[in-house]
Amino acid sequence: MSCSRGQLKSHLFVAVLLHIWGFSKSRLTHVVMPFNTHQLNRVEANLEHWKAHNPCHTGCGLFDLVFFVAHNGTLDTWVETKLKTFIARLPSTVMACFSSVHVEHILLAGEGFKHLIATRTMFEMVIKRELSSLETAACMLYMEPDLRPVRSNWLCLLDADASCNEFIIRGSIFFGRSFDSVKKFNFMAYHVNGNAMYCVNDGRLRQLYFDHVRPYIDRTVGLNMSAYDIDFWTYLFALDNFIVARRFIHLYQRTDRIINMCYTKYHVVHTLIRHPNAVLIHGGHPYLD
Q1: Eight-class DSSP state of 33
Q2: Residue-wise DSSP of 131-157
Q3: Alpha-carbon torsion 211, 215, 221, 223, what sign?
Q4: Which pLDDT value is given to residue 107?
Q5: CB–CB of 117/111 below 8 Å?
Q6: Closest CA to 263 of 114, 99, 107, 146
Q7: Which residues, in sequence order, are bridge partners of residue 36?
Q8: pLDDT per residue over 168-190, tens digit each?
Q9: Contact 104/133 with Cβ under 8 angstroms?
């Protein structure tokens, strides 16, 4: 699925102007929203927030938007139809932020559709840029449906914070108040949540994950027993991995643009007072503000 010819011409014209003015889109290029067919209502709810908090203002560049859908066993064609309906309801000011919109599909079945396995499979495909829509991706925002925009111009502000020579992963540690979980599992406090920016054009991201993190987790925990985002923390902060980890750990970063509020009830207004630079909030249970 893509923009109309008229919209595309307009976007290309803006892109040419940005190039002339010296704004190179070598930083944040893609927004990827992974989800399964059971989460379609969450995608709809997420996109509703885009109406209140427009992703961009004129002049910061254009982005590619990718919806990545996991199906259980068979391809559910109605999902893309519903998704197109949600997108069609977005205002033109929102769609003007994107040079293209893509829907990518993956068929999973049985054990492969279970949460930990499916999310790992999808994440690995994305960071390897195996989706046709990601062939030219530089830095991407990995945005699950429960990553909620809370401030307008959020894509441009993230783009300004996305110099790919400085990091390979940049996201949020835990800022919620469910301390029982934190006390039981210390990784809950310090790992960078998977809803983050990833420099997928940097080979160090794939080297870290596929050469080191993945084999280590497979040996020690089991790939089907752990979440891909926690795996980075588990590997990097295990002292027996220090010799290798010190080559990468400075590239594993947090940003105050994304706030992880998992397992926590919160007021958006109060959260923004405590985190004035935040543009996205992940998880949790927001009260009606």
Answers
A1: E
A2: SGGGTT-SEEEE--TTEEE-STTHHHH
A3: positive
A4: 97
A5: yes
A6: 146
A7: 70
A8: 999 999 998 766 666 666 666 78
A9: yes
Q: Which residue has the tokens 């699925």?
A: 1
HSE-CB for 110 with a 13 A CA cutoff: 1
How many whole angstroms separate alpha carbon 152 and alpha carbon 14? 20
- The first and second tokens of residue 263, run together, are 């397992």
Angle between helix 228-236 and helix 115-127 axes, rounded to 10 deg:
70
Evaluate whether 207 touches 232 at the Cβ level (below 8 Å): no
> Do residues 35 and 145 touch, judged by C-beta distance below 8 A?
yes
**What residue spans of the chain are helical by DSSP H?**
5-20, 40-52, 77-88, 92-95, 115-127, 154-160, 179-184, 187-190, 203-206, 214-220, 228-236, 242-245, 268-274
pLDDT tens for each residue of 46-89? 999 999 999 998 678 899 999 999 999 999 899 999 999 999 99
User: 57 — phi, psi (to 5°)?
Assistant: -110, 160
Q: By the 8 A CB rule, do 190 and 234 touch?
A: no
Tokens read off for 136:
């030219």
- Residue 69: CB atoms within 10 A of its CB come to 23
For the segment 94-134, what is each residue's pLDDT rounded down to a tens digit? 999 999 999 999 999 999 999 999 999 999 999 999 999 99
pTM here?
0.89
- For the cut 60, the answer to whether the pLDDT of residue 24 exceeds it is no
Cα dihedral 274, 261, 139, 134 sign: negative
